[in-house]
Amino acid sequence: MGRRALLLLLLSFLAPWATKALRPALRALGSLHLPTNPTSLPAVAKNYSVLYFQQKALAGHLHICIFQLNHYKTPLVDHFGFNTVKTFNQRYLVADKYWKKNGGSILFYTGNEGDIIWFCNNTGFMWDVAEELKAMLVFAEHRYYGESLPFGDNSFKDSRHLNFLTSEQALADFAELIKHLKRTIPGAENQPVIAIGGSYGGMLAAWFRMKYPHMAVGALAASAPIWQFEDLVPCGVFMKIVTTDFRKSGPYCSESIRRSWDAINRLSNTGSGLQWLTGALHLCSPLTSQDIQHLKDWISETWVNLAMVDYPYASNFLQPLPAWPIKVVCQYLKNPNVSDSLLLQNIFQALNVYYNYSGQVKCLNISETATGSLGTLGWSYQACTEVVMPFCTNGVDDMFEPHSWNLKELSDECFEQWGVRPRPSWITTMYGGKNISSHTNIVFSNGELDPWSGGGVTKDITDTLVAVTISEGAHHLDLRAKNALDPTSVLLARALEVRHMKNWIRDFYDRAGKQH
């Protein structure tokens, strides 16, 4: 795996967003999150009303969610300075179909690196448990994403405008929004709030409970790699898990991929080889010798994306995919001991599962790995400032070309792109790294198939900092809507998560009763 691809991992937290607008080294690979404009929705759609703060309701449209869409005038662009009073509109969604003023709760989704409507549509777990928990659902959009742009069209103009894009500012936004909701919604003032999020949003949910324990009684942090920083976990753990997923899904599958890199190198040494590769891989544009590293990074990113969305049923996150897509891919990668040309023809068949399972694609574009592009600019800046995650490969424990972690390379890329340099120690300074045992009431859930689990909390820390492991789970499978093909491990995980949330709610009301 090349230098560029490893840098891309930093820019890829939970949603692979590919974009042509960024320099190659600052494109997103396997971003913590997934595209914000999926090409299809669940079969059962519902009407929802769209409302804007201090305006009349707009007409409803068919959609998966029933919610009210509001813009909340959050107090400040900068919560931690005193020489500015600039404000901006923060978007959030509210659904109260099952909310009860007596004995109810508020489930608060801590929005991450994308449009909040996408998170509403793809966090079916909250909708599934709303009635049981008598819950109001709130989905808060993260500043600098979706429509919550502090400086409008100038929000990404330069590092001066981006200076307020930090996790700390986002958490303060959430705190101010919760205060606003409790102040303005009759019956909400004395109700418990539970923070919920997945991937970067899961990190924010955990950090919100840590930083604002008086505002959230607990947090569900799904697939939240809060330890993927500095040397808290080995830099190679992410790609090692990707490799394990492929190795377990078919005999010689990972070994076929490991041998494909040298095959590409050999075949690309000549003009005729480049021409053959272009045709064999059905690429949209002819390859040149300068494209080879980019080609290998694109293929690597594809394997990473498949590991993230290796779900037990057909899905349409990054691309239309079959159930257990890695198993389908590995059907074409059973024999690594073949000629270079045959091996790469097999690689094409495997890639075609990801990029053309629908059969509608005429050629493969190595500049694209996913269907969405929203959020990439903001995330690339965050990965260049405080969200600095070390990644490396060695070609032995994993199926990728060797590459070491090089902070200086990342720093130089970031300075060239944004005029800033990363602070790799800041997240652990701010949120404690592994020294978090003084906190309470956080459930950390991780799927063993998810490569981000390598940076997550996978063992109980205390009786109230609990780890839930989903043996057959990819990236925050537990936050997805219930499905008839859900494995037992995710059903048990959700049941345990709900049990913890009920306990937090009960304890809140017990304490409130004693105070009165």
Automatic annotation (TrEMBL):
Major location (coarse): other
Protease found in the keyword field: yes
One Pfam family from the record: Peptidase_S28
GO molecular function: dipeptidyl-peptidase activity; metallocarboxypeptidase activity; serine-type carboxypeptidase activity
Subcellular location: Lysosome
Keyword Cell cycle: no
Class of this enzyme: hydrolase
Record's catalysed reaction(s): Cleavage of a -Pro-|-Xaa bond to release a C-terminal amino acid
EC id: 3.4.16.2
Residue ranges of the TM segments: none
UniProt xrefs under InterPro entries: AB_hydrolase_fold, Peptidase_S28, Ser_carbopepase_S28_SKS
Any one of the GO BP annotations: regulation of thyroid hormone receptor signaling pathway
UniProt GO cellular component terms: basal part of cell; extracellular region; lysosome
Keyword annotations of the record: Carboxypeptidase, Disulfide bond, Glycoprotein, Hydrolase, Lysosome, Protease, Signal, Zymogen
First and last residue of the signal peptide: 1-21
Assembly: Homodimer.
Role this protein plays: Cleaves C-terminal amino acids linked to proline in peptides such as angiotensin II, III and des-Arg9-bradykinin. This cleavage occurs at acidic pH, but enzymatic activity is retained with some substrates at neutral pH.
Stated family: Belongs to the peptidase S28 family.
Name by which UniProt lists this protein: Lysosomal Pro-X carboxypeptidase
Record gene name: PRCP
